[in-house]
Amino acid sequence: MKLFTIQEINEILKGEIIGDTNQKISGPEELQKASANQISFIGSKKYIHLWKTSNASVAIINDNLVVEPGENRALIKVKNADLAMAKILELFNPNPPHFDDEIHETAVIDKSVVIGNGCKIGANCYVGKDVILGDGVILYPNVTIFDETKIGNHTVIWSGTVIRERCEIGSFCIFHNNVSIGADGFGYRPSEDGRGLVKIPHIGNVIIGDEVEIGANSAVDRAKFSSTIIGDGCKIDNLVQIAHNCVLGRSCIMAGSSGLAGSVTLGDGVIIGGSSSIKDHVTIHSGAVVGGGSGVMSDVAAGKTVVGYPATDAREMFKQWVLLRKLAKS
What we know:
Blueprint: H1 6-13, E1 16-19, E2 27-28, E3 38-42, H2 48-53, E4 58-62, E5 74-78, H3 81-91, E6 108-109, E7 114-115, E8 120-121, E9 126-127, E10 132-133, E11 138-139, E12 144-145, E13 150-151, E14 156-157, E15 162-163, E16 168-169, E17 174-175, E18 180-183, E19 188-190, E20 197-199, E21 205-208, E22 213-214, E23 219-221, E24 227-230, E25 235-236, E26 241-242, E27 247-248, E28 253-254, E29 259-260, E30 265-266, E31 271-272, E32 277-278, E33 283-284, E34 289-290, E35 295-296, E36 305-307, E37 312-313, H4 314-329
Parallel strand pairs: 2-3, 3-4, 4-5, 6-9, 7-10, 8-11, 9-12, 10-13, 11-14, 12-15, 13-16, 14-17, 15-18, 16-21, 17-22, 18-23, 21-24, 22-25, 23-26, 24-27, 25-28, 26-29, 27-30, 28-31, 29-32, 30-33, 31-34, 32-35, 34-36
Antiparallel strand pairs: 1-5, 19-20, 36-37
């Protein structure tokens, strides 16, 4: 078990210690559940009252809050408690699953595969023809990488993930359990005789930049032609659908159960709230925000926030909701 004094913790946070405690810290916990050897945090004044009844001996707090530490307890004041707590979580992060062998004997790896230095490949993985793995790539058990795929340095791919042929993955990416990269896009047209549907082939690929993280059970479909593109630094939550030929700029965020239809374009820094859906061929420009549960039917200007279904400028939509509530009460 890792144990740290408050002084050792503050060497990492570079904050201001208020009060003192001789209690060593074994890990983080929320205020209501913490024990005396745990550290918690207060990011808003509405949680200050919980500190009085909490058993935590240390709390990280925003420097604009006024809180008394109490006897044998201490506070660490920082500019941003959320970001500081991220450092604490990293400090106490348990070691990842252990590999007895760098390449497990049950892994099936084509003889043409190029494997970089320090790669680890778990049990029952499949790595196909002409795949290139950069240095330090980790494939946890039961990962499938199909032919001609390239994966950059230090990318981590968790169990159940499938990456289809010819995809290009950047460095320092994280794909969580059961991610699907490069499956066929959803494309059908009525047959000429009107008796069925004709499947449209999707012969493109997926290109994913550096430092992209994709949550469990999310899917990024291959392009009809050319590439579906996920820009550097994008963060994708669980159960997200990104359809064929979509293009995401840098550092976009998509929350859980949201989805992009085909050929959607997101600029840099776009935020898509949970359970939102974006119509095909729509462009959401840089810095725009789509509120949770919204349905975007047309382009969204840079920096604009939209909510509702169909999604409308947030301020206008909130005014409409207020008026509707007044009408309902009248």
